Amino acid sequence: MTQWWRKLGQVRRRWWVLGAAVVVAVVAGPIVTVRVSGQRGIVTLDDVEPAPVAIVFGAGVRPDGTPSSYLVSRLQGARELYEAGKVSVILVSGDNGRTTYDEPTAMADWLVNHGVPRDRVVLDYAGFNTHDTCVRAVEVFAVTDAVLVTQGFHLPRAMYLCRGAGMHVQGLAVAPGHDSWVAAAPNGVREVPASWKAWWDHTTGRSPTFPGPKETSVTQILREVDGQ
Q1: What residues are paired with 202 via a beta bridge?
Q2: Strand, helix or coil at 85?
Q3: What's the pTM?
């Protein structure tokens, strides 16, 4: 009887190990996929190849309606791309899900106030998350080639999702927007579940919160630029 119980215990341990391995693979595999594959195409400002569009992802606005420090860093990166002649259009995509909160307008205002012509800025008011921004950029605004502008902790996930949406992308990592590693730590922690969700959204083909209608603002600007 003792030997039988010992063998049963060994079998149970093997099943526990196997189960743990499966859980780790299911949880860690997608995260590693997103983080590793998303590194491809991340470049410096000098190495960015000219592209039609820069996409700036929303990152919060202050109570007074001005961009957060994280968002200012992203907008500065997009402005530098435009001033360097690397892009012709800047698509700002953020949350405007309620009348009292408007990321895209705050983003556009900042760019215009810092020298980017208003007619080169296009607003996406339904970029509620990274997946929605990427899918809408392709399906609503007909963007097929873009430079993604965001912080380094967020960039691999953005690259993975926009590439998965059918876009050719380069990534420009901008300044963190803070001066302390303590402030940065939550972002790194958040990217773990966010990366798994990104894999799930892409794998399941989740539709954005607001999938349409199609807009021609980006393509119209690019046609005008080509005709100059």
Answers
A1: none
A2: coil
A3: 0.86
Instruction: End-to-end CA distance of the chain: give it in Å, rounded.
Output: 89
The amino acid occupying position 49 is E
Please state, rounded to an integer, the average pLDDT across all residues of the chain.
87
Q: For residues 161-196, b (16+ Cβ closer than 10 Å) or e, as one string?
A: bbbbbebebbbbbbebbeeeeeebeebeeebeebbb
Question: Is there a contact between 31 and 113 (Cβ–Cβ < 8 Å)?
Answer: no
Of the candidates 92, 60, 61, 94, the residue with the CA atom closest to the CA atom of residue 77: 92
* Per-residue pLDDT reduced to its tens digit, 173-222: 998 865 444 555 677 778 888 998 999 999 999 999 999 899 999 999 99
Assigned token pair, 59: 């990152």
Contact status, residue 111 vs residue 121, Cβ threshold 8 Å? yes
Label residues 135-156 b or e (16+ Cβ within 10 Å = b): bbbbbbbebeebbbbbbebbbb
Residue found by looking up tokens 């963190």 in the block: 176
Assess whether pLDDT exceeds 70 at residue 165. Answer: yes
Alpha-carbon distance 54 to 78, whole Å? 6
CA angle 9, 10, 15 (to 5 degrees): 95
